[in-house]
Each structure stands twice: as structure tokens, then as C-alpha cells.
């Protein structure tokens, strides 16, 4: 087990917490992280692009002009892809880009992402972040005391004052431990864990 310092909202060390080696000290494999992040981004794609084929555009039922004698190329319909306003050849249709990788791979990738943050000294454990009121200024002061501006904050429960106070601060996101994912961990420079969420993550990843 690795010992990690625990800080309060003023940036002062108040205690230490044990971090399980099974989560925070695993070999980091870039290809597994890449695979899981790609899966997450694919799931976020809207997949709403759509075009009309030659059978879907309006009109085209009548032959535009006679077959012979005009000096022009033969044409049977105005919906031909060769014509302006005609259908699109092999155009996109609404589709779902989402796919899944095995659960064991996703869990392992989450452990690797947490390990990477610890190795980069970008993991911060805080005893609590209970703001007395919805106050963005106070939240910015707390972030300054923790010496970070860009961070993903992981809580053990819903903290409404914290969530509302941070929503207008750029490069900061608050998630609960059950919603923690590889993409968010790697996206932000620092990872801030509330001390109770450390135990929740261990229960989730070691079960």
C-alpha cells in the first residue's frame, strides 16, 4: 500500500490515506487506455448525419426530355445523382457508432488511468469539499489553495453546493465515484479525490 497525503480545503496536510496497490500501482499499457477511450468517444457520436438517395428526393417520375434529337446525353429522371438536386450516392444514414469492450478491460483501464495520475504526482486527496453556500469565488479560492486550476473532482455523494459553485469554472468537472471513467481522468491535468470516494473506488474496482 502507498501512503498519500490528505489535504483540507485550505491546502494544509491533515492526514494520510492508504492507496491499494491493486488499483494505484499497476502496469500502464497505452494500447488498453487508447482502446477504452476510443470506445467512449464512439459512444458519444450523434450518428445523425443523413442524406437522400435517388429514390427519396422529390420528383424524378417523368423523363426530363425526349431520348433522341436534343444533342444532350440520355436522361431518365431528374433524381439521378448526376443532376443537381438529385440523390446522393452512398450518402450517410443515421447509425449508432457505440460498441463495447470487455468489462475486465474497462476495469483494468480505469486502474491504469488512476495509476498514471499517481505516478505523475497529479493525484490529490482532500478530506472534504463541503462549501457553505453556492459561491464560485470560494470554490476558486479552494482550487488555488490546492494549487490547481484544471481538475476532475470525484465525490462520494451529491454535493449540490460544490456542483453549482464549479459549473461556471472552466477546466473543472465534478463527478461522483460511480461515474468515474478513463476519458475524464486522462482529459484533466489533476485528479482530486474526496477521501470517502477512495474507499468507494476500492469497493468498485476490487469486487
Summarize, please:
34% of the residues lie in helices and 15% in strands. It contains seven helices and six strands; from the N terminus they run ββαααβαβαβαβα. The chain has helices spanning 21-24, 30-44, 103-119, 136-145, 160-166, 182-187, 195-205; strands spanning 2-7, 13-19, 123-126, 151-155, 172-176, 190-194.
Could you please describe the fold and organization of this structure?
This protein has 207 residues and is of the alpha/beta class. Helix 5 links the parallel strand 4 and strand 5 (172-176). It folds into two domains: 2-45 and 101-205, Ribosomal protein L4/L1 (Ribosomal Protein L4, Chain: A), CATH 3.40.1370.10; 51-91, no CATH class. It has a six-stranded mixed sheet with strand order 2-1-3-6-4-5. It has seven helices and six strands. The mean pLDDT is 93. 34% of the residues lie in helices and 15% in strands. The two termini are 18 Å apart.
Amino acid at each position: 500500500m502507498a501512503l498519500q497525503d490528505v489535504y483540507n480545503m485550505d491546502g494544509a496536510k491533515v492526514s494520510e490515506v492508504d492507496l491499494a496497490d491493486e488499483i494505484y500501482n499497476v502496469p500502464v499499457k497505452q494500447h488498453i487506455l487508447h482502446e477504452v477511450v476510443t470506445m467512449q468517444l464512439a459512444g458519444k457520436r450523434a450518428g445523425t448525419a443523413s442524406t437522400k438517395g435517388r429514390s427519396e428526393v422529390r420528383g424524378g417520375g417523368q423523363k426530363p426530355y425526349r431520348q433522341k434529337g436534343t444533342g444532350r446525353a440520355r436522361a431518365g429522371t431528374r433524381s439521378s445523382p448526376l443532376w443537381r438536386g438529385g440523390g446522393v450516392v452512398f450518402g450517410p444514414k443515421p447509425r449508432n457508432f457505440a460498441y463495447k469492450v470487455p468489462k475486465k478491460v474497462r476495469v483494468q483501464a480505469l486502474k491504469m488511468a488512476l495509476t498514471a495520475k499517481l505516478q505523475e504526482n497529479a493525484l490529490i486527496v482532500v478530506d472534504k469539499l463541503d462549501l457553505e453556500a453556492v459561491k464560485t469565488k470560494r470554490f476558486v479560492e479552494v482550487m488555488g489553495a490546492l494549487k490547481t486550476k484544471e481538475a476532475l473532482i470525484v465525490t462520494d455523494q451529491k454535493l449540490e453546493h460544490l456542483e453549482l459553485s464549479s459549473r461556471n469554472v472552466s477546466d473543472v468537472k465534478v463527478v461522483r465515484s460511480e461515474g468515474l471513467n478513463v476519458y475524464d481522468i486522462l482529459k484533466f491535468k489533476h485528479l482530486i479525490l474526496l477521501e470517502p470516494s477512495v474507499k468507494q473506488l476500492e469497493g468498485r474496482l476490487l469486487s
